Amino acid sequence: MNLENENLKNVFSGVIGNAFEWYDFALFGAFASTLSQLFFPESTSQVAMLKIYGIFAAGFIMRPLGSLVLGYIGDKKGRKTTLLLSILLMAIPTICIGMLPAYYQIGALAPYFLILTRLIQGFAMGGEYGSSMVFLFEHAPQKQKGFYSSWVDVGCLVGVLLGTLAGWGTNTFLNQSSYLSWGWRLPFIASIGLAILALYFRHNLEETNTFKEFVSESSSAFSFKKFNSYIIPVISVVFVYAFGNVCFYIFLVFIPNYFIQEHTVSSGTSLLVTSAMSALIAIVIPFGGYLSDKYGRQKLLSVSIIVASLLTYPLFLTMSLSHLQLNLLSQIFFALALGTFYGGEAAFFAQTFPPQVRCRGVSLVLSFSNIFFGGISPLLATWIVQEFREIKFVGLMITFVGLLALWGLLKTSPQKLDKWSLKYN
């Protein structure tokens, strides 16, 4: 098989695997409003949503543990091993969610079972996302690492698209009684089909040459303790990823559910718009990866952060004014800026760490960023709206994280990272 066909096979395997993982993850966000009714029926709608978002955030607590365990396996046993294991660990709890008894069946125990499934999902995601980035980055040609590794995020958005479409479909084509009694369970249980497909394609992958080379050389041993020397770059990268993280969960989880809760639009319409935005971001991501190869990761990420941050004002202003047409236009421009950012992030993260600890390093950075920023974003945004009665303040939260991300890019010296990366490659 020639290099081009091999790269296409790797890209497809990365996309289908990440699509499955994020389909499972996105289902929880797409069905958040429904789950709040089924598992917290005795609470008011707003309090129930806060509890569901709290459970959503709880999944992120397990990510660092998943990063350490699955990342260690990826650095010691191979990237492929981790990618297969994470699929299995994600499939089991997702299918279980589709079979969980609701509050009216077992009472107060129901939310605890839901929390347990989210914790297992978080553990699996802790190793999957970073390992996928590393796998495609190491397989890619030297001058196209941004483009090829960007397809990891395409897979994520494809998964989100499938998850939100599943929510839209069940909302649209089932009556309310059927939907609440059994219809909402179907997308969770159906994920087994996507899991089998992902396992099949990943089983036929070749391990990366980078991993084979450092495993075969005893002199290439690298102590993970050396991360202490690079604490500032690591923290900086956490802040950089925080921007994409917060934007992702506000844009594709909080906003659609906000429209539903406020009865601004129907559930089906809100999920359909979110699906369209997910598709748009996915289309833009490879172009962002290409630009990162041509102009540099940091320059691309900086421009994308500035543009997206500036767009938060019209985005949330039109939401507060309930001007749906202008809000849709604002969402489109925001999606374009966000997609460009995602196009450059995967290669930026992967090139930060030497191959001996690359899976653990990337996965830990992503996990800590998710815990401190991404996972709590819908919860914090909901609290802001309740506390200040004004959704425009949610935009200030994104702008603040954008400033942190720009600081992170400034503090991450390209020369230092290049020297570090070359030393261990």
What does this structure look like?
The protein is an all-alpha fold. It has 20 helices and no strands. The C terminus is likely disordered. Helix 4 packs antiparallel against helix 17, helix 5 runs antiparallel to helix 11 and helix 15 packs antiparallel against helix 19. The relative contact order is 0.15.
Average pLDDT reading? 84
Task: Write the element-wise H/E pattern from the N-terminal end onward.
Answer: HHHHHHHHHHHHHHHHHHHH
CATH architecture, by name, is Up-down Bundle
Could you tell me the CATH topology label. Answer: Growth Hormone, Chain: A
Record field, number of beta strands:
0
* Class derived from helix and strand content: mainly alpha
Fourth-level CATH superfamily:
MFS general substrate transporter like domains
- Principal-axes shape call: globular
The largest β sheet comes out as: none
Q: Which ranges are low-confidence, i.e. pLDDT below 50, for 5 or more consecutive residues?
A: 218-222, 420-425
Measured by DSSP, the beta-strand proportion falls in under 5%
Count structural domains: 1
* Overall radius of gyration: 21 Å
Number of distinct helices: 20
Give the CATH level 1 class: Mainly Alpha
In whole angstroms, the N-to-C terminal distance is 25 Å
Proportion of helical residues = over 70%
In a nutshell, what does this entry contain?
Mean pLDDT is 84; it is low at 218-222 and 420-425. The chain is built from 20 helices and no strands. It has helices at residues 3-30, 32-39, 45-58, 63-76, 79-97, 103-106, 109-139, 145-149, 151-173, 176-181, 186-203, 209-216, 231-261, 267-295, 297-320, 324-350, 358-374, 377-388, 392-411, 414-423.
